[in-house]
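Session log. Operator J.P. requested a structure for one protein chain; no other inputs attached. Running the standard single-chain path with token output.
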Amino acid sequence: MNKTRLILSSKLNEVRPSVVELEKIKKETDEVIEKLENAVKSMKIKAEVFLGGSLAKGTIIKKERYDIDIFVRFFKDEEISEKLEKILKKAGLKGERIHGSRDYFKLMRKNLFEIIPTLKIKKPEEAKNVTDLSYFHVFYVLGKIKKNKKLADEIMLAKSFCYSQRSYGAESYVKGFSGYALELLICYYNSLLNFIKAVAKAKEQIVLDPGKHYKNRQEVLLNLNEAKLQSPIVFVDPTFKERNALAALSKETFSRFQETCRKFLKNPSRKFFEMQKVDEKKFNFILEAGTNRQEGDVAGSKLLKFFNFISREIEKYFKIENKYFEYDLKKKAGYYFKIKKKKEIILSGPMINKIENLIAFKNKHKDVFIRQGKAYAREKISMTIDNFMKKLDRRVMKDMGISEIRIIKK
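Structure written below.
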């Protein structure tokens, strides 16, 4: 067995839950499902409960606390989040309502359950929310795994690899590979190693259509919505031809992941399956920001939005040579920057045919120059980190949901 295979084999033993662990998870899950089903029946609501996510597909990886998805499929689209809330109450299951494109509920027991309302639809085209497609996703992946049982192991390895490289998740603060997207990719490439090789050698956008919904690559690019074609990998969802399952993947995340794949192939190591701490030595300005918003996707989105805002503010006075955003999945994030002082800044002025504005601009600034019919001014600056932080508009911070910010390194 070569070095790479040995690493993958040993890692699989670590990430695959034991039979005893799975029995405990399934027992707790069955209890929750039974309570939901009994509540649905007693309330005479037309709905059915089904297990989704990694547990249903047999691709769940070992954790201290497992995330388990349970879907309640309603026959009619009538305030289904509100109906689910009543079902949970009737079932004696106290869940926290999470706001989103369609509200769902988090239930903390020994493991974390997400109880998600969906519509019972016959065809994917009838979906009113992406979660309505989950039922189809489960059975598609299960079908592939039944034909090739090794796929489940390869999917577990892929999830562990991507998680360690901070590329796992379709949330806005990650913009990486969702669990379903990884399952599709491994089903297509048959193994994590094949997937890594394909990513490493890619020189153009990867376009995949295993369901053969379209005749060729060109037809995919012509028929899918342009907004869904911006990702470095376009994967036509086998269950729904109008959906790119990797639409959330950003060029930045893919580029970073591609570099990791190339490094792994060049020098395979277990460290690629271990979350590495950010090397603070690479950065000379580090901030920690906090938010008072709901932890998870909401908090992460707010903290990322403020990171982008503060990056633009920094660029007014400093050159950013490198930057990195890290969210801890709670209510805080690290903002990492490598910056260099600017000696001067260029201020944009009026068009030269706006005479009054041009005169006023020249009176205000000494070093004015004209470029392509527009006035600009060079202005020397001497900005320190402390002064920059004092200049930050606290009202903007509050409006963006940022409750605190502090300097870690300067």
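Operator note: The mean pLDDT is 93.
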